[in-house]
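Figure S4 source data
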Amino acid sequence: MSEGQLGYISALITIFIGCGILTLAVDVAYYRQKKMKRERKTSRVLGWTNIWTGIALLVSHWLMSI
């Protein structure tokens, strides 16, 4: 892989995992406070989806660099 792609993938992994953590920390707490069950559940699903997408990208990038 070229160095340009390495930087792009690293940034993408960081964005996915960071957005997932922020969604779980901020949105879920807000919706819990406002007692919005459906929105809280959707935020949890999207937050974990972002985290797992970031982890999958990290593992696939690691496997491709071996």
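Figure S5 source data
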Amino acid sequence: MLIRLLGYEIYKKWKVSRNILGGFIVLQVLLLSITRVFFWNDALSKMVMGIGDNGQNGSFTLGLISLLYFGIATGLFFLPIIENIYRFEKDLSGKQAVLELMIPIISWKKILSKLIVMLLSTIVFQMTAALSIMAYVLVNSNFNKEIVDSTLYNARIIISSPGKSSIVALYAIYILALIYILVMFCIAFSKSITHKNRIAVPIGISMFIACIAVFIVAATQIVKFPIVEFDLFGIEESLSSLIFVLLFGGSLFLGSSFLMENRIEN
């Protein structure tokens, strides 16, 4: 059932995301092409590389196009976070698809499937935004050798250390998941009290602040009693801190499932 629900969530997300991603790629290619064909010169290349006259020879139109390009990329970077939170809030307000309402599914499976799709969509959107910015820098720097060499060097470091790179990637994904599950818990908590947004929103925000405060206080105390300290890419970590982060995320997940099954859907 979890696999089927996950497939259903992916299908829903794809129906919404394909037009956004397609439109983003077409628009960014168009803006990049206009910049390269009509406005590119040595001054622009130096400006992209951070040297020269800081674009004083550039035109207002070029600056506007570049600003629009980076603005759209930044918007795409944060769009999935906002959209995912909005969709989850609507789901808890009883505005799911009819098929989802008719299927008797355990709450933790619903939350887990939504969380996985949230993470996948966020990674895809943010990687697309990052690649578009990289394309702008490479193309408008006229594929400057220093930038290309630096990009290839960083890529080789990642490839040459797959174990460490995988650990860092998994840790980053878990932190993103922790942020999502914290927001989901706060929304579930507020919806378990009332479905009126003018009351539920302040309650959710207050719970979010309270959870962050508890996390900071607890983490500060745990750091004082480290267990098995180690270095992770220059960052001092301890096994006790990692266990605490895992337990904190697990508690939020179980709390969200409990509230959704016992206080919201029943």
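The chain has two domains: 1-160, 162-266. The chain has a mean pLDDT of 81.
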